[in-house]
Fold this sequence. Notes:
This protein is mainly alpha-helical.
Amino acid sequence: MPYADTSFLLAVIKESDWLKKPATAEFEKLKGKLWTSSSAVIEIMLVGARLGMNLDNLIVSLYELVDVVDMHRDIPLTASYFMQKYGMNVFDAFHAASAGGDEIVTSDSIFAKVGPKTIYIGNAK
């Protein structure tokens, strides 16, 4: 099964992209056989946020197109919610979503906004 990288996935998902035509043609040939990883999900969220895309729609589209083998779609959807509601950056939002309510050991006070107990190191309080 071919691995789908970020540039390919974004070209298929975005309404307009310089690679849209060849990417869509290749996707049609490989439909149902493609997979990707959490690395691509995070990169797509970074690019989508930078481009001002609707992150929830982007995630739903991604998970409909390919099999993401190492991340359930609830994690990026929760991360998207944290970004929108609390202004978290992509990486902090993914950490908070991945923790799933468990304590987070950190020096960053941003996690207190989303609810899990935070074990602070350093002077973050």
